[in-house]
Amino acid sequence: MLECIFCKIIAKEIPTEFVYEDDRAVAFLDIHPTNPGHLLVVPKSHVADFLAVSVEDLAACMKILQKIARVLPQAYNTPDFNIMQNNGVGAGQIVPHLHWHLIPRYPADPLRIYPHEKNYDETVAEFRTKIKQILA
Ligand code: 5GP
Ligand code: ZN
């Protein structure tokens, strides 16, 4: 996937602020951080999205996310963070190479990822029934 920007980053073809790398995945600072310290964790093997990733690469990425999250208090002076994965264009995914955002949160910062502005209570039971039926 030579045209993929994250594959180019992984191949070290683009200057990038890496913080961690192992045989399956990398972590680097986002070029347009949502909050100071915003990082991305990316499997080395090119897959477009969450549905396509192998369980081994998934586990590797989760381990790295936890490893970095554990040092946030030391690194950024905050224990708080959001982990996000935008899956699909409709969900805001711009780079079609699977990645997780690790976004440090700071006291009273203005980020509102889940605004809870609408009340969907009437659909909760309907979706519970539907999803349980499909998964069964
Ligand atoms: P998405 O919307 O696909 O979940 O997020 C893609 C993220 O990748 C964005 O936050 C964007 O700032 C970041 N990004 C895009 N291109 C580059 C790049 O060349 N280098 C780095 N470090 N981050 C990038
Ligand atoms: Zn790629």
Characteristic key phrases:
136 residues; alpha+beta; HIT family, subunit A; 18% strand; globular; binds guanosine-5'-monophosphate
What does this protein structure show overall?
With 136 residues, this protein is α+β, with helices and mostly antiparallel strands. The chain has one domain: HIT-like (HIT family, subunit A), CATH 3.30.428.10. Helix content is 31%, strand content 18%. The protein has four helices and five strands, in the order αβββααββα. It has a five-stranded antiparallel beta sheet. The longest helix is centred in the middle third of the chain and has 16 residues. The radius of gyration is 17 Å and the shape is globular. The mean pLDDT is 93. The structure holds guanosine-5'-monophosphate and zinc ion.
CATH class: Alpha Beta
Quote the beta fraction: 15-25%
CATH topology: the name is HIT family, subunit A
Number of helices: 4
Q: Report Rg.
A: 17 Å
Distance between the termini: 37 Å
Largest sheet descriptor: 5 strands, antiparallel
* H/E element order: HEEEHHEEH
CATH-level-2 architecture: 2-Layer Sandwich
Q: Give the count of structural domains.
A: 1
Helix share bin: 25-40%
The side-by-side strand order for the widest beta sheet comes to 1-2-3-5-4
Low-confidence stretches: none
Number of strands: 5
In short:
Helices cover 31% and strands 18% of the residues. The protein has four helices and five strands.
